Amino acid sequence: MEPKWQNISRRTMQLSSISTMSENSLAQTLRLETWMSDLPPQLKDVPLIYLAIPGSHDSMTYGITRSSKLAPDAEPVLHRLYPIFRGTILRWTITQSLDTWQQLQIGIRYLDLRLATKEGTKEIFFTHGVYAEEITKALTQVKEFVDTHPGEVVILDCQHFYGFEPDDHQRLMRYLLNMYGPRLVPRQLNLQSITLNSLSRLRQQIIIVYRHQSVYATGEFWQPQMMPSPWPQQDRISGLLSFLENVRRHPGMGFVHQAVLTPTPGFIIIRWLSNLREKCAVPVVKEILPKLMDFTPGPPLSGTSASRAPVNVVIADFVELDDAIFSKTVIQLNSKLLRNTDFVYHNYG
């Protein structure tokens, strides 16, 4: 059988002849709601881990309100400060303003989930220091979206679990399996075999990364090492950019670049009257997004002089800023796969 990914002159010539037309098409006809479906045909045979995919950071914080209570992940100091400085703390806790459906509509295909139990109930909630919504509505919106958008794939990354006992993990995993069933993309040894076309044939549309040891017994979910998501932990643009430029990734795994600033207590104190949107998200849009255009998706190529790791998933706060410029920028990076005629197709099977 002819290798699917190989360096052959015929393929390079084909890419060269269609690259300009396809790039222009990608830029001019981009519909955020269906951008995966609308990709040029040749990109649908590129492994999903080599495509540029926009995601949201702390995706469910839009559900935090002034009536939200402190959650198990709250820093100890918040228990003293929250009753007095509730409004200020919430301004620095909320990282998204669009709900799940709206995020999916503007092209977000990766959702960062932080989960917590609550005393006195078996329900599970989203969290970021304080409780957001119970999980049912948002996860149902994901199902409704993929049901009505057959060419789109959504990654649900269960990043953190707070107040969880083994029974809570079992209950959550059963819930996810019952909710998405055959739509799930099961764990596989060879991630390079997973493409938009292969998933479309199988009618699989949802990847769940479950970052807990419980997942090792459940083949329907991806293990943490299949999509590392290193935390920059930077409150300055210069530090964040240095992190993004120097982080490394395994060529056979997915990866998450976190294009987010993390405010420290000292950072917040001198900006007490402002909020995370203006002091963290807006600077990323203004100063990091233009630099992101220098990045490229695709596999690391042997012998390349490029020092930075190729992008796969890129996440940000307040993804709707400037008419969803974040999603548009990340998706447009995929045009580089068409423009780069040195892109090497390997057989990883």
Tell me what the structure shows:
By secondary structure, the protein is an alpha/beta fold. The protein has 11 helices and 8 strands. Strands 1, 2, 3, 4, 5, 6, 7 and 8 form an 8-stranded mixed sheet that branches. Helix 9 runs parallel beside helix 10. The N and C termini lie close together (11 Å).
Classify the secondary structure makeup into a structural class: alpha/beta
Kindly state the mean pLDDT as a whole number?
89
Largest sheet entry? 8 strands, mixed
Percent helix, as a range, is 25-40%
Give the SSE string.
Answer: HEHHEEEHEHHEHEHHEHH
Which radius of gyration do the C-alpha atoms yield?
20 Å
Q: What is the count of DSSP helices, taking H or I runs of 4+ residues?
A: 11
Overall geometry comes to globular
Beta-strand residue fraction: 5-15%
Please tally the β strands and state the result: 8
N/C terminus separation: 11 Å
Low-confidence stretches: 1-21, 344-349
What descriptors fit this protein?
8 strands; disordered N terminus; eight-stranded mixed beta sheet; disordered C terminus; alpha/beta; single chain; 11 helices; 349 residues
Which helices and strands, and how do they pair?
Elements: H1 9-28, E1 53-56, H2 78-91, H3 100-105, E2 110-117, E3 124-127, E4 131-134, H4 136-148, E5 154-162, H5 166-180, H6 196-202, E6 206-210, H7 237-246, E7 256-258, H8 265-269, H9 276-292, E8 313-316, H10 321-332, H11 335-339
Parallel strand pairs: 1-2, 1-8, 2-5, 5-6, 7-8
Antiparallel strand pairs: 2-3, 3-4
Helix pairs in contact: 9-10
Question: Outline of this structure?
Answer:
With about 350 residues, the chain is α/β, with parallel strands linked by helices.
